[in-house]
Amino acid sequence: MKKHVLVLLALLILSACSGESQASVAGNWKLVSYGDPAGPTVAVPDVQTSIEFKEGQVNGNVGCNGFGGTYEIDGDKITFSDVVSTLMFCEGPVGDQELGTLAVLNGSATYVLDRNTLTLTSSDGTSVVVLARS
Question: Would you tell me how many other CB atoms lie within 10 Å of the CB of residue 36?
Fold first, then answer.
């Protein structure tokens, strides 16, 4: 009987852990790099970058403008909807960073969560955003 209880307890623990992976994108993230998956561009230093995932909402700032929208996770796919941003003019490396990041946060992407690193890859595989938990 004790053996069955231990097996049941182990299964409950494992099932609880497997459910965590989908919810674990929740929290605050800082942009590390973006762009071409083969050689991403390092985030512009001294530029406040942050992305927060919370209860189906995503918001943050990755350059000059704030943005917000919704997200939904299904397996290793994350779908962004209704993403809008403020419209301040942003040029140079900061503008490139903002455009490159927001392009991935538009529509569907795949994601990989590896401890404190979240990698989002555009649905066509041509762009990546790498985030670190902050």
Answer: 12
Burial letters 110-130, b for 16+ CB under 10 A, else e = ebebeeeebbbbbeeeebbbb
Q: CA–CA separation, 81 vs 132, rounded Å?
A: 22
pTM: 0.80
Among 2-16, 84-98, 100-114, name the one with the lowest average pLDDT. 2-16
Residue 15 lies in a domain: no
Domain count, the chain: 1
CATH number reported for the structural domain that contains residue 114 in this entry:
2.40.128.270
